[in-house]
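Minutes, project check-in
Item: structure for the 372-residue chain
Input as provided by the requester:
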Amino acid sequence: MTEYKYAVPCHFGIEKTLSFEVKKIGGENIAVSDGKVTFTGSPELCAKANICLSTAERVCIVLGQFRARTFDELFEGIRALPLSEYIGRYDAFPNTGHSLNSVLKSIPACQKIVKKAMAVNLCKAYGLQTMPESGATAQIRFSIMKDEFTLMLDTSGAGLHKRGYRRESNAAPIKETLAAGIIDLARIRENDTVCDPFCGSGTLLIEAGLKALNIAPGLNRGFAAERLGFIPDKAWRAAREEAVEAIKRGAEFRGYGFDIDGECVSLTMANAKKASPLMKITAERRDIKDFAAPAENMKIITNPPYGERMLELEQAREIYRTMGEKLLPLNGNQLYIITPDEEFESLFGQKADKNRKLYNGMMMCRLYSYFK
């Protein structure tokens, strides 16, 4: 039985969350490192991973790994790999990569060697003088870490954060994959009520709804590997059918969004409708100064404005003080707030029961959790 090794990058801080997702879909030999989870599984698992993983940035298949300190070693290592098992006679194979703490530092030079070696490899396999590269695109990614070279095939295409529901956003969105990680950490269940008093384009509410209803995040989009052919069409069909059957249509999830910007309210409603008509999400224009809890025993999950992003720092900090006045005491609710401001707890007026370091892109943030 054919077995692939998969490498799946994610936001720093949610690796363990992703590893649980991987285990749930059947991944084996799971290993966690900074910003990445690797695992092994069947070719069919490629379809399931792309469709079902909510916190993964993309799903890559490892084509080969070897030590390379010279361009000759790099060339010969690539030439020996079974690339024609993944890349077809007419497929294009552009490459991109990075190097860290390695002898081979020049990325443009490495890209040229990778391209040349792959072309020689594939021409020999297909009996050609040159590769036409007129078909589908097999995006190649490589990394060189302490002289260890890894060649990967990106099976996702567009990043997995692109679920298809958020074609427009407000000025400072949170990425869908990071939002999904926060939702997992908040342990959203099918009958939960979730509120976001700074809903923006609705990402946190929508990701909560997807989790509560068990709707696979990649159910309504396509993936690069579907056009390459080495994963059978029936594997993609089966993964989608299984995902549809797993939806919890009877879930009683409710989502409430508030925002001072009327355009954000409209975006939230439009995006929620695109994501799934099954989700019960409402949004209305309201300032945090006028916040009133819409339900009992709910989970408030939010990404409030902060100085470097939308407002001057002091304006943002005034909002944090108002949040403390309006959201405390908890009265049976739970509260999850992500922000890069290290002074948040003192401004909010209460120390978090737990705080976790997360990265929103390159920005270090903390998720402050209040649940006692």
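Outcome recorded: The chain has a mean pLDDT of 95.
No further action items on this chain.
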